[in-house]
Amino acid sequence: MLNLTEELKALSLKAFKALFDQDLDESHIQIQPTRKEFEGSHTLVCFPLGRFSKLSPEQTAKAIGEFMQENSALVSGFNVVKGFLNIVFADKVWLQIASDILTTPNFGYKAETGREVMVEYSSPNTNKPLHLGHLRNNFLGYSVAQILKANGNKVHKVQIINDRGIHICKSMVAWQKFGEGETPDSSGLKGDKLVGKYYVIFDQKYKGQIAELIEAGKTKEEAEKEAPIIKEAQDMLLKWELKDPETYALWEKMNGWVYKGFENTYKTMGVDFDKLYYESQTFSLGKEEVLRAVEEGLAYKKEDGSVWIDLTEDGLDEKLLLRKDGTSVYMTQDIGTAILRYRDFPKIEQQIYTVGNEQEYHFKVLFIILAKLGYKWAENCYHLSYGMVDLPTGKMKSREGTVVDADDLMEDMFATAKSRTDELGKIDGFNEAEAQELYRQLGLGALKYYLLKVDPVKRMMFNPEESIDFQGNTGPFIQYVHARICAILRKAEQLGIEPKVSDTLSSLEPTEGNVLQLIVDFPSKIEEAAREYAPSIIANYVYEVAKAYNKFYSEVSIFNESDQDALAFRIGFSRIVAETIEKSMNLLGAEAPTKM
């Protein structure tokens, strides 16, 4: 397919040779997209070229532009803005590109490169259900995996389930003391929500005991350590690590409830995993590595028996690796998990961890420790950090039971999609099953798009009402444009119009050219999104495509076109746009309805 950037580079070098008798290296030629307010699609930056042409940047740009227009059938016009030469390609060029895209299978996607990567996301604790923060995490990790795959990588999607530790012991103690045998079946609660309920109860009882101890004369710090219920949880953690049969059986039972709940939530989310790792299976390998580090002098034991590593020479601090009672910390299991993954998938070139930005220091430490332990692949590990999600109602706290539950939020989104869709009459002719499926697609599309259109590093405010608007930069707007195009394609098929680009066509409507300029960028947008680990690049790109097509649709009456070649082109052009929107939404983990 015609690569306009490469063509323009070659033409620039040819112009320079003809005009200034200079054989420039390609590295001197800088091409960038033309700014929206100027005519053209590609811009040659002429500021660095003045020293070779001995002219001002403006004079250099003008001379090159005139040469290109006179000597290349590709260029139909140009304009100069200071030292920037904006190139206008001939309509014939865009028609040829449209023809190439129409006949190119999987346009935008790269062939497999043989490179393997691993993307970790979700990674919940088993003491509570998934919440709004997990939605951003899952949607971000899954989308990055989709984008990396489209860029030619083989991707392994994994999660580490934090199924052991003091957090689950808190839920277990509370259930044992106050649960009276309650189960998901007897309560009608999803398993993860039932276990989360007892995590909240634990925190309430713990706070009550702390208050009593403070009233009895203890300091706050003493009360927090001496509260009977926290001691019970700590004792339970020790029993678990010693594989006490009764403790282990309770742990398996309650975690089993949670896994069933998680499974249902992931299904509703539309995300999946290739392999699951469990902290209970990786922490022991981490402990072995920590003890090896002590033997080799990389880590040391304190008098109380705790194990630490000194990272002050690396600009960090001392880091705890094993508690004084020998139990593991998060760092211990993360060391074991990373090593185990490379043993399971020896060909992976990179591990990508999708975890909130509050853990940036943790991962900096983890990667340094792995490198000190002799694992060269540690330098290729990457923390895909993202900002927290806030709601207009304020910050979420899982211990206090004030989190926004993922299941509830998704159900609310489906309900909002239903009311908005019914109100606008977008389900005329749908049966009940089709209508419910559309509500699901719109609700999830709205949620995923809203959470992904923001740069991952930014903290964001999620506004459910705003996200599901059918106007503006939203998922439903893009989905509606796609459904509208699909209706056009169905009508064309009924009329027997074959989508194609005829050689007899020589001109385009301005709005058609604007859309094609965006479409041709699709492969480079995927590359950029993969390089930056940023689905927001795809999200904002597909919005621009949908918006530009919508402008074309409002200005050009497709089926009133009397020229059959122009009509066939517009159907082909519409199909290209629909395919680009569908692929882009799929890269975001969202669906593009064909009917609304």
UniProtKB/TrEMBL annotation:
SMART domains: Arg_tRNA_synt_N (SM01016), DALR_1 (SM00836). GO terms for cellular component: cytoplasm. InterPro entries: aa-tRNA-synth_I_CS, Arg-tRNA-ligase, Arg-tRNA-synth_N, Arg-tRNA-synth_N_sf, ArgRS_core, DALR_anticod-bd, Rossmann-like_a/b/a_fold, tRNAsynth_Ia_anticodon-bd. Transmembrane segments: none annotated. Residues 478-596 form the DALR anticodon binding domain. Residues 6-89 form the Arginyl tRNA synthetase N-terminal domain. It is found in: Cytoplasm. A motif ('HIGH' region) lies at residues 124-134. Pfam families: DALR_1, tRNA-synt_1d. Its EC number is 6.1.1.19. GO terms for molecular function: arginine-tRNA ligase activity; ATP binding. One of its GO terms (biological process) is arginyl-tRNA aminoacylation. Its main location: cytoplasm. It catalyses: tRNA(Arg) + L-arginine + ATP = L-arginyl-tRNA(Arg) + AMP + diphosphate. Keywords: Aminoacyl-tRNA synthetase, ATP-binding, Cytoplasm, Ligase, Nucleotide-binding, Protein biosynthesis. Monomer. Belongs to the class-I aminoacyl-tRNA synthetase family. This is Arginine--tRNA ligase. It comes from Marivirga sericea. The gene is argS.
